[in-house]
Design brief:
A 5-stranded mixed β-sheet has the order 3-2-1-4-5, sandwiched between helices. It is globular, with a radius of gyration of 20 Å. By secondary structure, the chain is of the alpha/beta class. The protein is built from 10 helices and 12 strands. The structure holds adenosine-5'-triphosphate and fe (ii) ion (FE2). Adenosine-5'-triphosphate binds next to helix 4 and helix 5.
Length: about 325
């Protein structure tokens, strides 16, 4: 069975094609980068509408399959930005109707965990999902994927990007901060903000900007921001793993590309006798292959949707989904 999936929750429009044997046949994407300032949902959606057709054709080409080989069409139903979600959903509906093939709308956060399970070989992990818009610890418990901890304000990546912009580092600042942090060595005082199983990041950004005004170097600020934020994530991830008894931790989301985060989670896992897994970069960030894969898994477990069920859901919660494909 071949599934084509379309991702469009935020800046990235992605198209992926997978088969039932966990093989990613194609995974192409195009990311909207705002000329200045933050992400404007309508402009990102216009970008997605501009590129979606050519990306579908590119994915078919890369997978070496034709339209008529597609058995199922899936798309990211949420959570995300309404205008962006609607572009992906509309393209998926058009394909489904045109090809007379079933359509499945999937939860974006669960797609991160399922592609990770498929490609890394882990079985029952706690997922640390750290991206631009999302920061959550998710695990399977009692028939659902449940959120055990999350950010109370902004996603960690959005905080990095906003901080980067204020510091003049340009948009998509995560990788730049990571580079700068390598040359920092002074751990500056920033608010360590863990509340129970939850974290918050906006106070760290305000404090980091104040440190810059006081003349601290970008390197030391980047280093301190990373050390503080990642220690917070390691702490709540560890607590969730202990609480629900998981011996595996899976990383997902764009921030999972950060080597310092990986190292800190790896150290935490090792100390607990647990194992860390990280998918390839292209499968960590927002991508169509994960949407296709979850569509495939859901379809094979018997999930069916009508066009009427394909309305997007900006606040689609991870624990709303009945996980029919796991025991
Ligand atoms: P979502 O819709 O899931 O919230 P997203 O649209 O933010 O995701 P992703 O590709 O998952 O997209 O993540 C992008 C984020 O990851 C950006 O905020 C970026 O700064 C951050 N990022 C990318 N690489 C790194 C890195 N090496 N270190 C830290 N952050 C990074
Ligand atoms: Fe994501």
């Amino acid at each position: 069975m071949i599934t084509l999936g379309i991702e469009g929750t935020a800046h990235t429009l992605g198209v992926g094609i997978v088969d039932s044997e966990e093989k990613v046949l194609a995974n192409v994407l195009d990311m909207y980068r705002p000329p200045e300032g933050g992400l404007h949902p309508r402009e990102a959606a216009n970008h997605h509408a501009d590129v979606v057709t050519s990306l579908i054709l590119k994915a078919l080409d890369e997978a070496q399959v034709s339209m008529k080989d597609i058995d199922v069409v899936s798309f990211s139903k949420g959570p995300g930005l309404g205008p962006c979600l609607r572009v992906a959903a509309t393209a998926a509906r058009a394909l489904s109707v045109r090809l007379r093939k079933p359509i499945i709308g999937v939860n974006h956060c669960i797609a991160h965990i399922e592609i990770g399970r498929a490609v890394t070989g882990c079985h029952d992990p706690a997922l640390l999902y750290a991206s631009g818009g999302n920061t959550q610890i998710i695990a399977f418990n009692n028939g659902r994927y449940r959120i055990f901890g999350e950010t109370l304000d902004v996603g960690i990546g959005n905080m990095f990007d906003k901080l980067g912009r204020e510091l003049g580092l340009g948009f998509y600042a995560g990788p730049t901060l990571e580079k700068l942090a390598k040359d920092g060595d002074k751990l500056l005082d920033l608010p360590y903000s863990v509340k129970g199983m939850d974290v918050s990041f906006s106070g760290i950004m305000t404090a980091a900007l104040a440190l810059r005004k006081k003349g601290h170097s970008l390197e030391d600020i980047a280093y301190s921001v990373q050390e503080t934020c990642f220690a917070m994530l390691a702490e709540v991830t560890e607590r969730a793993m202990a609480h629900i008894g998981k011996g595996e931790v899976l990383l997902g989301g764009g921030v999972a590309q950060n080597m310092r985060l990986r190292q800190m989670i790896q150290d935490m896992a090792e100390e607990r006798g647990a194992v860390m897994y990280v998918p390839d970069r292209r499968l960590c960030m927002d991508n169509g292959a994960m949407i296709a894969w979850l569509g495939n898994v859901m379809y094979e477990s018997g999930v069916r949707m009508d066009i009427a069920d394909t309305v997007v859901d900006q606040r689609f919660r991870t624990d709303e989904v009945d996980v029919t494909w796991r025991d």
